[in-house]
Write a sequence for this structure.
């Protein structure tokens, strides 16, 4: 009899937890569900993408090091003569490309590049990525590419 009591309690708790998880999912918007699903599967996306990159910034190497912080490069203006490289991030798999400044023109000709006029590039990147995901699901990848590039290029 005691065993049945424990089994019953287990099943009740299992059902309660299941309902809570489902309720949490029900309360999310379609957009939130899409983004969450994308984030859970992003590692599965291989090299086959639409090659749309967001320009993240231009940097120069620095020698600055202290005991607390690791060495880090300094962000400079896009066309700075002190620049050593630029960073670009793929909107479909978040692949980050560090391109030497002498090869940036070639990289930008070979790929579709969105250049943002903001230092909050990470925030903007995720906003664009979210728009792309929603459009790709609703209208297909080709249409998503067209709309994103039209809006941000």
């Amino acid at each position: 009899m005691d065993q049945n009591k424990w089994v019953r309690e287990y099943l009740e708790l299992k059902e309660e937890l299941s309902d809570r998880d489902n309720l949490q999912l029900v309360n999310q918007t379609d957009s939130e569900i899409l983004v969450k699903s994308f984030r859970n599967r992003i590692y599965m996306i291989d090299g086959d993408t639409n090659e749309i990159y967001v320009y993240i910034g231009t940097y120069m190497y620095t020698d600055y090091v202290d005991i607390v912080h690791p060495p880090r490069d300094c962000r400079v203006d896009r066309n700075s003569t002190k620049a050593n490289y630029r960073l670009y991030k793929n909107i479909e798999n978040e692949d980050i490309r560090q391109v030497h400044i002498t090869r940036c023109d070639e990289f930008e000709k070979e790929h579709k590049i969105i250049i943002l006029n903001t230092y909050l590039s990470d925030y903007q990147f995720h906003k664009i990525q979210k728009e792309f995901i929603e459009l790709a699901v609703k209208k297909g990848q080709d249409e998503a590419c067209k709309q994103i590039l039209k809006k941000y290029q």
Notes: The CA atoms of residues 49 and 97 lie 14 Å apart. Helices lie at 2-26, 30-41, 104-110, 121-139, 141-152. The longest strand covers residues 52-60.
